[in-house]
## 1
Amino acid sequence: MLALSFREFQLELEREERPVNKAQVKELLDELYKMYPDAECELTYSNPFELLIAVMLSAQCTDKLVNQVTPDLFAKFPDAASFASASLADIETAIRKIGLFRSKGKHIKEACRILVDQFGGQVPSSHEDLVNLPGVGRKTANVVRSVAFGIPTIAVDTHVDRLAHRLGLTKAQQVLQTELDLMKKIPKDDWIFTHHGLIFHGRRVCSARAPKCEQCPLTGLCSYYRTQQKQSVRKQRNKTSAGSATQNSV
Ligand code: SF4
């Protein structure tokens, strides 16, 4: 299936104006739980500190690549103090396979210095403390809070944002608004799972360029699918009427 552009899809969605109700949200969650009962963070980590560093490294980079780099990285720099006292060049060398390694190295070193100076080398669990660390934005803070500390949050990454739009859970133009819309629609007990479930579905079935709708059990709940179906019916009709017009003019 050829994917609609984000703008085309938004225009169609505005035309459609069919808000998702509670029963549909429940159905969606039931399906996600059925498909991905073990959905969880796919980064490898053994404590909140390693998770924080892995999430910082994962920006615009695959979890798979981060997981290739972190075993050696954490063997060399096992805690905040070791990153804080290392030279930037050593950190950069250890993460150079990862995109944006220079800025990530700088952020990690500085964030670790703050962890040592202000938090005894531990990762804080408060949103405010986390987003005050260099290189830690709202999404990273939410992942750390939910995965490391079990605090209900919905971290919105590119998969969660795309799926939330396709499934008609939001029409937000900003990621923060997507998060707020999801928090309104999804029961709080399901926030952490929803983040992982949508990421699993985005990675395995509902990719940005070529969603495998023919394999997806969510078609009945999906605004994007309905829109694509309508478009292909419209295109087919146009083709048929263009064909008859040509025949009549002969
Ligand atoms: S039907 Fe499934 S795969 Fe297709 S766009 Fe919707 S959620 Fe994605």
## 2
Amino acid sequence: MSKNDVGTCSLMAEYLDRIGAGKVLVDRGPLSFDWTPPSLVGRNSELAYLASMFMGIGNDEVSGRAVVIGQVGTGKTVLTRRFGEDIIRRMEGIRKIVLSHVNCRNHPSTSQVLQQIALSLDSRHPERGFSSGEIIQTIRRNIRSRGLHMILVLDEVDVLVRRDSSDLIYKLLRIDEGKSGQGTISLVLVSQDLSLMGMMEPAIISRLGESNVMKLEPYDFNGLIGISRQRYEASCRPGSVSDEVLEKIGRFAAETGDARLSIELLEAAIRRAEMDGRGEVSVNDVMPSTIRAASVEPSQVDTLSIHQKLVLLGVCRRLRKEEVVSSGDARKLYELVCEEFGFKPRSYTTFWKHLKMLETEGLLEAKSANTSVGRGRTTYISMTNTAPATIGSRIEKEMTNR
Ligand SMILES: Nc1ncnc2c1ncn2[C@@H]1O[C@H](COP(=O)(O)OP(=O)(O)OP(=O)(O)O)[C@@H](O)[C@H]1O
Ligand SMILES: [Mg+2]
């Protein structure tokens, strides 16, 4: 190794040391959106209400049904996960319960959903050529022969219904009809779409039971502080994040009531403190201005054309989870959004014009960079002037109300 190499190595080590100094952070896990906290903040009555829909679940012939709706980041997914895990534990020695959680945005067709259910039972994949009715009966046999009860959560179920109608839900609700032995599956439907029930046929609504619909309200200031406090306590050194910091996070996140935003702001603030080599997060580390500040008014979106909105919605969905999206991905996301809302995607040239226009409007920023393969250049899109979640749900709301 030459002298030069050694120099580079030690420099690199220093830079890595700083990133991993861990003066604030002990365990990054609880800052992930997928972390299921041991208890939920401020959702006791909602959990109790959900539990009431599962009354008598300890008996073999009984199943529950529930519909959970609420805006983005109101804790629908985590609520159903927490409930599922809690009920499995509570029923130990009484009834064997298996939880299957299928996200219909990731698996939007009837056959994909059935495949996920089958996989959760650890069975062979459903074979091709069988009708959905036959696959459902195979799943039923599997559950019953093993003495199980399944709690099936269909998350973001509106995506499935919009694409394939509510036929699968109807079949699942009737899984035991005319058969010996009842109570095979409890069905939980989850959706952001407040008009979900309007998309269902009366026969389904009557089987689900209108009193089994629960709406989650957006979190308020105190709820959001509680959620970020829980994440901080689970991931950071004691005393590294003050009440003032948590309050500032709560104030900013309360604009949307989205729990994800409060976690995101906390993580960004921790990262800033760590980068600075400090052992305490300061109030100035909480900087929503760069991520979600209102230098763009959300209402600005209302004057855009339909396809500009669809392009923007695709981008917003990705940017809620990532910092940038490539133009290629933005195109694919746009096509998905078009499919979801029943529009025919415009040509690539028109799509590109829309992107440029959104950039001129200040809603998006675009930077081009060399691609890692070939000699091409790719454009990377980000959104620093405004909140992707706010803009995205504004467009979503309008599209679903059309
Ligand atoms: N009451 C709560 N207590 C603790 N953490 C929560 C609570 N509510 C939400 N969270 C956390 O906030 C994040 C967003 O919640 P979740 O994913 O459940 O929202 P959602 O309603 O399913 O959103 P979407 O509509 O986008 O799917 C998750 O990381 C979740 O763990
Ligand atoms: Mg969810």
